[in-house]
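HOLO CASE FILE
Compound: zinc ion
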Amino acid sequence: MRRLLAGSTSTSAADALLWHFGKRYGIALSRKASEMTKTAVEGMNLLVTGAQKSGWGMISVQNRLDSDGTVEVVFENCAFCEGIHDEKGPSCYFLAGILSGIAEVLFGDGYSARETKCKAVRGDLCSFLVARF
Ligand SMILES: [Zn+2]
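Model generated. Tokens follow.
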């Protein structure tokens, strides 16, 4: 999808569009999860379970909100960059947007997500840092 959008606009415009689409989707998902759970952690766990069942990859979460105010989310076998190789930088903008929307709803204003490692660049996982940047 990123390459199709980039072909008719530019890579940076495609990345921005995908990030914003993802953020709106993440906000909607986490509002629903918040209605079904009592705490942000329960909401996060519900979303992780749903994402794994939907085939987004194997997801692990390191919740460090109480120590340094961050959460690390790692996707093994990330579905969003499957088949993409040799990118110069992280390419999962849609997923980063989703996580940013979720973080904003569950953890509060100012939280967003940045992809720090991407399978499309090298390795076999995508990792996101959620924090107040
Ligand atoms: Zn990635």
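CASE NOTES: Residues 2-132 form a domain with the Muramoyl-pentapeptide Carboxypeptidase; domain 2 fold (CATH 3.30.1380.20). The radius of gyration is 14 Å.
CLOSED: yes
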